[in-house]
Each structure stands twice: as structure tokens, then as C-alpha cells.
Design a protein that fits this description.
Blueprint: E1 8-11, H1 21-37, E2 42-45, H2 59-67, E3 74-77, E4 80-81, H3 87-100, E5 105-106, E6 109-110, H4 115-120, H5 128-144, E7 152-156, E8 160-164
Parallel strand pairs: 1-2, 2-3, 3-5, 4-6
Antiparallel strand pairs: 7-8
Helix pairs in contact: 2-3, 3-5
Length: 174
């Protein structure tokens, strides 16, 4: 197999009852270790909420947990549902995970769109594409802000708002 060819895999575990959650999480962790030992390039997690699909819910948390145990594999998102995140928090969490993994983090982004997931956060799935673009535009501005730049004020549809006076901390590793 050529050196440029990389194999990766992802998790999208399903549970139908609370008593299955612990076994599902244990299986994800066990499989992640196996994939790392087998030489896979990246282990992807996905973000789903309130449906039983993608039952670990928070790909930042599960990826952070796994990253501290993996020997070689990157952790990655397939995907992070951008509209469900406050832009400043999203920028901070991505940078922190990039730091904790020493650059072994692939930040896959998307708009999502499952109505039940959006409803759980008081949002509308029909707005996912536009909300993704607006949140990500703010994230990019926040990432670009230097300490001496003027404050960045933002308001994404009266859903997410704030003023960044300093910079996003920590800085990304890469």
C-alpha cells in the first residue's frame, strides 16, 4: 500500500435504551484502541443529539477522552454541527482539542439538519445552512483576532452573541 494512502474510520453508535449506553461507550473506546493499534490514520466521531443515533452526543468530549489514549491516530469530526454551537465556544473548544492532541485533530464541519436535534436546542433545521455559514463566519473572525485588534462584536440572529476583547485562548497548535 503506498505511503500516501490512509485509512480512517468513524463511529456513529446507536442505542435504543438508557441501559445500553454504557456498553455502547465501552465498545466505542475498545474499537478506537483496536483501530489505533491497526494503524488507522484517523478515528472520526460524529455529533447527534436526542435521537439515539450517534449516542455519545458530544464529539469534543469523546474525542478528547480518546485522544489521550491513542498512540498514533488522529481524532476527527465527521461532523461537528456548527449551527448548534456558540461561535466563541466552538473556536475555543477546537483550539483546545488541537492543542491537547498536538495537532492530531481534524475539524470536520457541517450544517446538520435533523429536525429533532435542532428542536432540542430551540432552533429550526430549515435554517441549518444559513446558520452554519453565519456561525462559521464569526468563528473565522474570532480566530483571526489579535490581542491589540479592536473588540469583535457579533450577533448571530439573536441566538449567539458576544464581544471578544482579547483573543481566543488557547491558540491552535497547528
Amino acid at each position: 500500500m503506498p505511503n500516501s494512502f490512509k485509512i480512517s474510520s468513524g463511529f456513529n453508535p446507536i442505542t435504543s435504551a438508557p441501559e445500553q449506553d454504557t456498553a455502547m461507550l465501552d465498545a466505542v473506546i475498545e474499537q478506537a484502541h483496536w483501530m489505533d493499534e491497526a494503524g488507522l490514520a484517523c478515528i472520526y466521531t460524529t455529533e447527534h443529539h436526542f435521537t439515539g443515533y450517534g449516542a455519545h452526543s458530544n464529539n469534543f468530549m469523546i474525542s478528547s477522552y480518546l485522544a489521550g489514549q491513542l498512540e498514533q491516530a488522529y481524532v476527527g469530526f465527521s461532523i461537528c454541527v456548527v449551527p448548534l454551537h456558540h461561535p466563541a465556544r466552538l473556536a475555543e473548544m477546537a483550539n483546545l482539542l488541537d492543542q491537547l492532541t498536538k495537532g492530531r485533530f481534524i475539524f470536520g464541519l457541517g450544517g446538520g439538519g435533523i429536525p429533532l436535534e435542532f428542536a432540542g436546542y430551540g432552533l429550526h433545521a430549515a435554517d441549518s445552512t444559513e446558520l452554519h455559514d453565519e456561525v462559521f463566519d464569526v468563528v473565522m473572525q474570532l480566530w483571526d483576532k489579535a490581542p491589540d485588534d479592536p473588540p469583535i462584536e457579533f450577533n448571530v440572529r439573536d441566538i449567539y452573541q458576544g464581544t471578544l476583547y482579547q483573543r481566543i485562548m488557547p491558540a491552535p497548535f497547528r
